Structures are given as C-alpha cells and as structure tokens.
Amino acid sequence: MFLKSSISFIEEFFSLLLDKIREVYLKSNIYNKKISIIENHTLGYKPSLSILNCIIKYEKKNKIEDYYVNAIWEKKINSKDLKKLHSFYWLFTIDLKSSKKITHSIIQNWIDKNKNYNSEIWEINTLSKRIISWIANSQLTYEDTSDEYKFIFNRIIIKQVNHLINEINRSDVFDNKMIGCTAIILTGISYNHEKFISYGLNLLKKIINSSFDNEYFPKSRNIRQLVFYLKYFVLIRELLKESLNDIPEYLNEIIYYLGKAYNFSWGSIKESLLFNGNHVSDLSDFDKYLNLYKYKFSNERHELGGYSILKNKNIVIAMDSGSTPDKKYSNDYQSGPLSFEAIYKGKKIICNSGYFQNHNHQLNRISKSSANHSTLIIDNRSSIKFKKYLSGVSRVNKSLKILKKKISSEKFHWKLCGSHDGYLKEYGIVHERQIEFFPDKNELIGQDKILKKRNFKPSNFEIRFHLMPNIKITKTQDNKSVLIELENSGWRFFSVNHHIQIETGLYFGKKNSFVENQNIFISGITQKEEQVIKWEIEKIK
C-alpha cells in the first residue's frame, strides 16, 4: 500500500513539474509567435442574442458608462472575481444604447495589457467565455469601429482560439472542454474559418463519444452535468442552423437522447434531485427556451443513468441505484448508494443534503460522505473511498457495485429494490434496501437489510433520513415516531423496533453554500444473523 501511494505521489509530482515546464514555454516568444499567425479572416456572422439565452441568464439593464473598467484592470482582486471580469460575460448586462466608443476603448485597453498568454486569464474557461461574449455582443464590441481596431480585434480572437486548440485536449475538466468547443465552433462560423469549424465539430464528436454511456447518460452520472451538456449541444445546433451550416446527425442524435434523459430527471418532476454533484437549479427558463425553439422531449422510463424514479402527479420517489463511475469521471461523484428522495407536490419529504462544488474546500469532502445522504452508514464510514489529488479534486479510489436491483410500478403498489457491496470487503456486509409505496394510501414502507457475508466484522450502523432546512419536526414521547410538517402536508415517520433520534446536519443544496438542516436516524450494532430494519412514512394530513 505504501509503495502504491509513493508511486502515485511521484507520478503526480512529475505531472505538476511538466506543467510548470510547459508554463514557461507558453509564456515564451516562440509560443507567442506560433499562435499569432496573421490570417485574413473578418467577423461576418453575428448570432442572435436570444440563441444564447440557454446559457446566459443576464438582462441588458446597465450602461457601459456606469463601469470604470479601465481602472479595474489595475486593481488587485481575488481569483474568482478576476476570472469573472476577464470573461467579459458582464457585457451581456450592458444596454445596447450604451456608448460603443467606451466599449471599444475598454476592449482595446484589455488587448494592450493582455494580448500575450497569462495563465490566470487565458485558462480555458475564462478565455472561451471571453470569445463567446465578444462575438455575441458584436453590436457593442465590433460595429462602428475603425479598420485598425477591427484588424486588432479579429487578430486577438484568432490568436486566442489558436491557443485554445493547442490546450483544450490537455484539460480533464469536461465542463471547460465543452465551453471551449462552443467558442471554437462559434468563431469558425462567425469568421467563416473552415479549419475552426472542422476542428470544433470533430472535438464535439470526441466529447460525445467519450462522455456518455450506451444510453447517452453522462458517464459521471451527474444530473447537473447532463443539463449543462444539453444546453451547449442545443446552443451549437441553433448557431449552425441560424448561420445556414449543416447540422451533423450525431448532434441531432445526442440532443434527442439527452433530451429524454432531461425529461426523466427534471422535465416531468420540476425538482432538482440531489444526487452525485447536483445542486438546486431553477430550470424553468431553460424549459421556456426549449419550447420557444420547438424542442419537445418525453420519456416514460423508470430507470436511466443508474437512477430509479417512480412518480405520479402527486409523488416522486427517486433512488440512486447505480454503481460508481470510472475514476476519470468521478470528480463530483458522492457516496450515496441506495439513498433516496421523496417529493410530495413539489415539496421534499426526504432528501439528500446536496453537494459543495468547490473542490478546494473541506466542505466538498463532507458533502461527498455517505452520512450526508439518506442511506445506511456502517461505522460512520462512507461506502466509497475517495483519493484527493494535489489539484484539490477527490476521485473514486475504491469502487462500488450494485449487486441487484428491481423496480416495479403498478397502479396501487410501487417497489424499488437494490443492494450494493460498498461495505463488503472491509466489514463483510451487503446493504440491501427495499422501498414500497402505496399511492392510494400515501404510505411508504421501507426496509434496510444488513446481510452477513464472509469476513463479517461487528460494527455500528446508522440509517439517516435528511430533511430540507426549515422543515418543522416533532419527536413523540415514546421515541418511536417523528412528525414532519411540510407547507402542503403532514407526515409521520416511525419505526416499530428501533428508537428514533434527531440530529443537526448541513445542507448544501444551493451551489457552494450551506445551512443547517435536521436528519432523522436509526442506529444499532450489526449482528451475526441477518438484520432487517423496518421504517415507514405515512401521510397524516
């Protein structure tokens, strides 16, 4: 084990060393000349701003005159704000009646100061957004300018894309790669640059082939990423369509299947399911966008992407019934096998606690733990082990397999079943969960089995049921039940054979933030014989 860890550390060390050497090269005059090749391309196609509404949330309500951007370039600000500033996405907030002269001056000033590679403001995400913003907002950034300005503007766009093409395949951040791909394709379309269009579409094909499983669900199993990809695929399609370019069949195909996955995990639910890197998002504007551009998706499946979902017009029961993704896709994966969420008329009865997305923050590790999910935990340890890399990212180090799963949906009887081996090697235990729901009674009956296998090791267990923040709960005097009061209904959680406890935890539903929440939990000690822990949730008003 020590030898393996040492080898891994050495590999990481040399990887970082090579990155440092490459950084010196990227800052050299040799590289600058390489990406500064003068090409006779001018901005032609200018996309309708409405097409970008799927990725841009801003409204044009500010005037450029209210910004002192030339002075801002000189100020020292934190890295996050610096990248926001240099992405130029704030241009989408600028009223088109603003002074074009001031806008041109700001961009010229930026070019004068930042025309050569800089690791912080030329990284893939920031650079790609800057290209998209400059081209999309050409009415402010490009129109009514001198030939000299247009020459400089066109040249810096091409230069940045040349750099992007050189670097994009080195990135292991799939979101950044997708944004970069969009920037390359948009530049190719706008400048009638066949090389960029060809490269961008080939890269798009590679992203599709490498990032999705056989059912076109992201290999990461991340619902947030699913939505992210769908937005950019649709955007690229609409850009190609508006500019009268051919739309590749593989792009139509991935949108069709990804749209079905979108309908499965959001469209027919209208609630964010907090599994594996997802956080709370309001996708109603994106739904309107899809409707405006005549994208209609349907899906009647109950299983997809390692998730099992049963629903009717009142209730949704969703369970994580999938195995761990491959290590390279597990940046945002969480240790919540067989965890579930129950939703009644848009209000969650039981939930998971969400995900803290910032990899460099200690709360990221906490949000990945099994204890932060509505599932069974052995010995206060997660069922999946993660390895933290020098970059800050934690990836799956010990995988987990779903051993069996079953789902059935009859009119008056739903059933979700599954088991996993996350505690098998260390504790000789298999966790099996069964959830039954009776729609006519609004009654949910669950049982968690602790199955003894070889090398069984006695240990403590806890089964947690997380609640949304600000939900009012009351424990009864006999410690056998808890009353859960939602805005639209009341429920009773109870377990006949076990005492119920209430504990304060953390909820990470909103991106990179946390508040306190409460969770119900049942605890005990594992026995040599098979154990069955039964619990029920029933509607009382």
Number of strands: 19
Structural class: alpha+beta
How are the strands of the biggest sheet laid out side by side?
Answer: 9-10-11-12-19-16-15-14
Q: What is the CATH top level name of the largest domain? A: Mainly Beta
Q: What percent of residues are in strands? A: 15-25%
| Domain tally | 2
Which structural traits does this protein have?
single chain, 541 residues, alpha+beta, Beta-galactosidase, Chain A, domain 5, 2 domains, 8-stranded antiparallel sheet, 5-stranded antiparallel sheet, 15 helices, elongated
Verbal overview:
The chain is an alpha+beta fold and 541 residues long. It has 15 helices and 19 strands. It has helices at residues 2-26, 29-35, 69-72, 79-87, 100-114, 124-136, 138-141, 147-167, 174-190, 194-211, 223-242, 249-267, 284-292, 362-368, 424-427; strands at 303-304, 307-311, 315-320, 340-344, 347-350, 376-378, 385-388, 394-398, 402-410, 413-420, 429-438, 443-452, 460-466, 472-475, 481-485, 490-494, 501-507, 515-525, 531-539. The strands form four sheets. The protein has an eight-stranded antiparallel beta sheet with strand order 9-10-11-12-19-16-15-14. A five-stranded antiparallel beta sheet has the order 1-2-3-4-5. A hairpin with a 2-residue loop joins strand 1 (303-304) and strand 2 (307-311). The model has no long low-confidence stretch (mean pLDDT 91).
